[in-house]
């Protein structure tokens, strides 16, 4: 196998899945991750369509389903807390019965356990410089060490350092959709039991949910960025921006905003997409959000990560480790799939965050009518059909693995 020594930047879903499949195909992957360990916690994510096939081929599907969030119902409320509409959890979350919803941290742990004995992990470290040579990539790490790898793959997210070093500044590739998202753990003061409650205000949506096996809850804020002062980078500035954006909103929003100050897992970012003409530059390639982020509004980030990792490893193996052929084949296979899923983001976020009071009133009226109509599940199925078309918009190849090189742990 040519170019067997591969550095992966990022131990998220994309990076760890890639490490798994590269090892299956006889490569020697190393994963560098700036966090001190695999990240725990996080919000709930969906595994849909082709990603279910990847999980099944990894022998993980039953474990994922056993750890599902088991959210049973979804409710929409108005500013007074009045329940406007309700439906079962799968319909509310846009899932068919084959889809699996799991907490991101649980999925991380399952993936890491499949690889920790056979893959080298460098936690608490990160790439600071890349120098490509005819024979490899010289990598400088924040720890002060320098190493040479045959190939480097950036799986380090929307704000990818690898992409910036190999392709150029973030501003060239990251396209802000005009909305912000914030998520954090909060006390379950509503007593939610595997339920999700959504509040809709003008340009401001907020939801809270509880999942199986968790005594607490999660709060998610989605809002129109118009009128938000500046672009805070530090957590305290982001908390202030969030509180300002939701000032005066009804229902339980003020109480959830107060809870965010004590949250250790506070997260805040733009809802953005990544668009690039190419995903590789000689010996450096990009994967997942670093290459084709579809935004959280698409609901497909995790599935794109799983499928992209499977395809990239498989195409590199099929090319015998030749990075030019392998990276080119990876793009040919993945581009239509990534594009189909990226189309979901802008349309979904406009449905999730309505801009005016009149639109809020109309949305509430329509949801109330829908809630009383027979066959509402069939109507909702038509609404979520585009998600499932996109989730299945790729035919996965079966790539031959190398059993002789595969360690017993895999």
UniProtKB/TrEMBL annotation:
Any Pfam family the entry gives: FAD_binding_3
In what residue span(s) does the FAD-binding domain sit?
4-341
**InterPro entries assigned:** FAD-bd (IPR002938), FAD/NAD-bd_sf (IPR036188), FAD_aromatic-hydroxylase (IPR051704)
UniProt GO MF annotations: FAD binding
Stored PANTHER family: MONOOXYGENASE (PTHR46865:SF2), OXIDOREDUCTASE-RELATED (PTHR46865)
Protein name per the record: FAD-dependent oxidoreductase
Give the lineage. Bacteria, Bacillati, Actinomycetota, Actinomycetes, Streptosporangiales
């Amino acid at each position: 196998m040519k170019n067997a020594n591969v550095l992966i930047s990022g131990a998220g879903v994309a990076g760890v899945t890639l490490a798994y499949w590269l090892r299956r195909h006889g490569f020697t992957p190393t994963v560098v991750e700036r966090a001190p360990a695999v990240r725990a916690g996080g919000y709930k994510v969906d595994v849909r369509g082709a990603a279910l096939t990847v999980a099944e081929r990894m022998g993980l599907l039953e474990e994922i389903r056993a750890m599902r969030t088991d959210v049973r119902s979804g409710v929409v409320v108005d500013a007074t807390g009045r329940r406007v509409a309700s439906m079962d959890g799968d319909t509310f979350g846009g899932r068919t019965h084959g889809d699996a919803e799991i907490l991101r941290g649980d999925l991380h742990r399952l993936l890491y356990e499949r690889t920790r004995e056979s893959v080298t992990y460098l936690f608490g470290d990160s790439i600071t410089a890349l120098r490509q040579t005819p024979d490899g990539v010289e990598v400088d790490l924040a720890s002060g060490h320098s190493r040479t790898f045959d190939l480097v793959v950036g799986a380090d997210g929307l704000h990818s350092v690898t992409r910036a070093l190999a392709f150029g500044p973030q501003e060239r590739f990251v396209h802000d959709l005009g909305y912000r998202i914030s998520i954090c753990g909060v006390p379950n003061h509503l007593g939610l039991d595997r339920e999700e409650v959504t509040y809709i205000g003008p340009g401001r949506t907020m939801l809270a949910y509880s999942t199986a096996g968790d005594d607490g809850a999660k709060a998610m804020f989605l809002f129109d960025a118009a009128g938000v002062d500046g672009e805070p980078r530090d957590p305290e500035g982001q908390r202030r921006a969030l509180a300002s954006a939701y000032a005066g909103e009804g229902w339980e929003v003020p109480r959830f905003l107060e809870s965010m100050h004590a949250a250790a897992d506070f997260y805040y970012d733009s809802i953005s997409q990544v668009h690039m003409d190419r995903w590789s530059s000689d010996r450096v390639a990009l994967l997942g959000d670093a290459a084709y982020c579809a935004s959280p509004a698409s609901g497909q980030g995790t599935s794109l990560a799983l499928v992209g990792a499977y395809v990239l490893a498989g195409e590199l193996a099929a090319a015998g480790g030749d990075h030019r052929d392998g990276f080119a084949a990876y793009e040919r296979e993945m581009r239509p799939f990534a594009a189909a899923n990226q189309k979901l983001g802008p349309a979904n976020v406009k449905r999730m965050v309505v801009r005016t009071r009149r639109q809020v009133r109309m949305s509430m009226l329509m949801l109330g009518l829908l809630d009383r109509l027979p066959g509402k599940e069939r109507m909702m199925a038509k609404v979520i059909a585009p998600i499932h078309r996109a989730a299945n918009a790729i035919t996965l190849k079966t790539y031959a693995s190398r059993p002789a090189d595969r360690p017993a742990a895999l």
